Amino acid sequence: MNICDTPLQGLKIVDTKRNIDSRGSFSRWFCGDALSAILEGKNIAQINSSKNTHSGTIRGLHFQHPPAMETKLVRCIQGKVFDVAVDIRKESSTFLQWFGIELSAENSRMMFIPQGFAHGFQVLAEHSELLYLHSEFYSPECEDGIKFDDPKLNINWPLSCTDISPRDKAHSFITNDFEGLIL
User: Fold this and answer.
1) What is the 3-state secondary structure (H, E, C) of 123-147?
2) Cis before residue 67, ω within 30 degrees of 0?
3) Do the domain assignments include residue 25?
4) d(CA 178, CA 135)
5) What is the pLDDT of residues 140-182, one digit of tens each?
6) What's the CATH code of the domain at 68?
7) Which residues belong to the active site?
8) Cα 41 from chain centroid (whole Å)
9) How far apart are the first and last CA of the chain?
10) Which phi and psi (to 5°) does residue 23 adopt?
11) Cβ(108)–Cβ(27) under 8 Å?
12) What are the two backbone dihedrals, phi and then psi, of residue 84, each rounded to the nearest 5 degrees?
């Protein structure tokens, strides 16, 4: 596993190697030893998947407030998505900046998203599936979100939005008094 920095402090890309031969392929999806430096002692508490039928679909931007802030490892295991993380850490020098990258079954990349980031993605290929590893359990009383088309963020989604859930449509835009999350 090769851990690469992004322009946003703490947000990482994890490149994994796929070994391909006549039988098919083999790749390591998680290695606590190789990821220990970025996990900083956090354990994986929950693993979720998201299957998405249509390209253009957007999910997010989601996050959890304290005491349930979470670290995530996100990997596309089928198809292709544009994965986005937004820095919402109060004291961060990159507060309200976003980073996006293509994750696909072919490139075998993961995005490591530390606490204090909102996360979302857009489906780029029909029938795409993501696997999420979370450091915290889902906590409905701590969940929150930011509207995917917030003008303060100006995320450059690659495709027109074709489908978004009523819950994600109902997220608010960032207001001038939004101070971010305190870690």
Assistant:
1) ECCCCEEEEEEECCCCCCCCEEECC
2) yes
3) no
4) 25
5) 999 999 999 999 999 999 999 999 999 999 999 999 999 999 9
6) 2.60.120.10
7) 62, 132
8) 20
9) 27
10) -80, -20
11) yes
12) -130, 135
Residue range(s) defining the domain that contains residue 146? 2-17+33-169
DSSP 38-71: HHTTPPP-EEEEEEE-STTBEEEEEEE-TTS---
Q: Which pTM does this prediction carry?
A: 0.94
Q: Which of 17, 119, 25, 22 is nearest to 74 (CA)?
A: 119
List of residues 6+ apart from 38 with CB closer than 8 A: 3, 12, 112, 114
For residue range 27-49, what is the model confidence (pLDDT) as tens digits? Answer: 888 888 888 888 888 999 999 99
DSSP state of 90: T
The type of residue at 5 is D
Domain-located, residue 180: no
Residue 51 amino acid letter: K
Q: Residue 28 is encoded by which pair of tokens?
A: 């390591």
